[in-house]
Amino acid sequence: MSPPQGWEAASGDYRTETDSLGERRIPADAYWGVHTSRALENFPIAHRPISVYSTFIDALAMVKLAAVRANIEIGAIDPHKGRLIEQACLELLEGRLHDQFVVGIIQGGAGTSTNMNANEVIANRALELGGWQKGDYAHIHPIDDVNRSQSTNDTYPTAVKIALSLLLRSLLDELWALRESFSRKGVEFKNVLKVGRTQLQDAVPMTLGQEFHGFATTLGEDYERLKETIWLLSEINLGATAIGTGITADPRYAASAVHHLNLITGLDLESAPDLIESTSDAGAFMSFSGALKRSAVKLSKICNDLRLLSSGPQAGLGEINLPPRQAGSSIMPGKVNPVIPEVVNQVAFSIIGADATVTAAAEGGQLQLNAFEPVIANFLLQSITWLRQACLTLRVNCIDGITANTERLETMVGSNVGVITALTPHIGYAASAALAKTALLTNRSVADLVVEAGLMPRDRVMKLLSPARLSGIETITTSIPVVPDHHGNPDARL
């Protein structure tokens, strides 16, 4: 009968609640009850309550609010009770009593503990509003009234989908803002010439602006792909109750509940055409997880590039300067590390792992219900939250403050043999290869070598090696002229 460890009443007062397993002492000031008490004892796993995801608590409140309004509408609940339950749900949506959602995010029972935590908090607050004592369930009962026409098996996955839908809006906003930040840098650096690289080896020239514009394009593509996942979350099984047959629910309930839920959430939710399939299948969660992983992986690749481009500052590439955010070493004075891209990389690693967990959990469900939706919910809510915050910190604390190391870039381009590729259509491959070899051995300017060889006047060389032409903004390719060798052979190339 003891209360769960760590949950003694602050006032020293307790109330007794009873379930099918017996009696439990509940702190008198707690809004949760006996079912939550058992969950606290059974699942001391994550040490993270479901309230860490406030949007999820809001989503649970929205589901319960839609349910009670539907029950009032079809005459399945006493209107007075219903209005008190409705008011309690609205208070949750105002942010009140979120601290009473105490069950661990990882739990057995397919989310039953979470559902009962919500039922008990709402019931006890409704009792207070009606002038009764907490735990006086003869007046308003957590199951008979708050959970009327429902089961964990339809309310829990519906709440998860609503929470993800609401969080997706926020993620998309941040992802677009990050895209715009990269795009602005693309404009800022549009005339800054640099050496492109393939397989980490020098390739042909490009502009730093083109590189950053490419980053922006990548993020824009992921924005569109994530938007496409909204439909995955719009199909819900509310009204399915236990396994999809709708047992204990009035036939009119499902349509009414979905209607009210759309009004409350502002989403475009619809009832699944096959409620039995929808109740047992976690495919939508797996697909959504895959979309988050794709976005995280591509963002991580960009951060890898940023760390490489900013490496040094003296012994690395040193092409760009990331904003210094904190001292980088406890032993090396003056060292500054790329901590913002590094933390985004770690977020991506976590999302990749989370996707593997979601995939395993989706596969692991049996028959009419997937019992592993709590771990799916935990990792999806974590992934989308972390990805949003990663986009925010990358934009504000890194991308907006990036500068180009123009002097170093000019030096690297001037001595880089890759620029000779732009001259190949005009002087031929063999002559270009010979000049490239000389440039590498002597570390001299390609332009100077071309002029000294008498292959082209300086003004023509400089025009062909202008940033616009080297980066492909202006087309420079023409037919390769036939140049006689010193023996007068017109078919030979210099």
TrEMBL record:
It comes from Humibacter ginsenosidimutans. The lineage of its organism: Bacteria, Bacillati, Actinomycetota, Actinomycetes, Micrococcales. Residues 22-353 form the Fumarate lyase N-terminal domain. InterPro entries: Aspartate_Ammonia-Lyase, Fumarase/histidase_N, Fumarase_C_C, Fumarate_lyase_CS, Fumarate_lyase_fam, Fumarate_lyase_N, L-Aspartase-like. This is Aspartate ammonia-lyase. GO terms for cellular component: cytosol. Keywords: Lyase. It comes from the Bacteria. NCBIfam families: PRK12273.1. The keyword Transferase does not apply. GO terms for biological process: aspartate metabolic process; tricarboxylic acid cycle. GO terms for molecular function: aspartate ammonia-lyase activity. Residues 420-470 form the Fumarase C C-terminal domain.
